[in-house]
């Protein structure tokens, strides 16, 4: 865990520890995978090649440690609270908006849209939620419209009213001017 935290901080500062970390950073840059996955892949190949010299117990333990290191690196890079940006397209957008606002207590942004295929006008609903809340949100939307079009993307940083920067500032009793400007 400490190794993963150290590597995460080094990578967050756009630095490197040398060795396979450089290869992992190259894999991250060109193949668009997280640094944790890149470390798991590159160092995993090294560990698997050690099966010829060491017994399976040592190799398995090393892979478990490597997996933990990779996850911690990703947590340091992305943060502990994972968020999702969810976009919803449905002709029943008013009912979905009401449900998100009232029952799930989620903010919603409405964006007028026009379909590229049929030029149909519509409304896109966008909300940012915690990853753990996604199944409940999806269920609520599909109860209203089984044919709703949902797009879910990972959001690595979210700032503004109701999100991390404001909450952190409030917990320290400080005014977060950046967050207040987004309200």
From TrEMBL:
Keyword annotations: Cell membrane, Membrane, Transmembrane, Transmembrane helix
Cell membrane as UniProt keyword: yes
Residues in DUF2179 domain copies: 107-160
Any one GO cellular component localisation term in the record: plasma membrane
Recorded topology in the membrane: Multi-pass membrane protein
The UniProt record lists the keyword Repeat: no
Gene3D superfamilies cross-referenced by the UniProt entry: 3.30.70.120
Primary localization class, coarse: membrane
Subcellular location: Cell membrane
Entry-linked Pfam families: DUF2179 (PF10035), YitT_membrane (PF02588)
Bilayer-spanning residue ranges: 33-54, 60-81
PANTHER family found in the cross-reference section: UPF0750 MEMBRANE PROTEIN YITE, UPF0750 MEMBRANE PROTEIN YITT-RELATED
UniProt protein name: YitT family protein
């Amino acid at each position: 865990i400490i190794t993963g935290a150290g590597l995460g901080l080094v990578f967050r500062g756009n630095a490197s520890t040398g060795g396979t970390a450089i290869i992992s950073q190259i894999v991250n840059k060109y193949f668009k995978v997280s640094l944790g996955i890149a470390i798991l892949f590159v160092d995993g190949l090294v560990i698997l090649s050690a099966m010829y010299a060491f017994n399976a117990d040592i190799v398995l333990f090393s892979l478990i440690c490597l997996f933990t290191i990779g996850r911690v690196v990703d947590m340091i890079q992305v943060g502990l609270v994972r968020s999702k940006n969810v976009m919803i397209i449905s002709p029943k957008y008013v009912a979905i908006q009401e449900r998100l606002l009232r029952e799930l207590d989620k903010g919603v942004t409405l964006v007028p849209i026009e379909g590229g295929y049929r030029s149909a006008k519509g409304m896109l609903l966008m909300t940012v939620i915690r990853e753990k809340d996604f199944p409940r949100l999806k269920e609520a939307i599909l109860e209203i419209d089984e044919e709703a079009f949902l797009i879910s993307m990972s959001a690595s940083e979210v700032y503004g009213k109701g999100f991390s920067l404001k909450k952190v500032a409030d917990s320290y009793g400080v005014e977060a001017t950046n967050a207040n400007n987004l309200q």
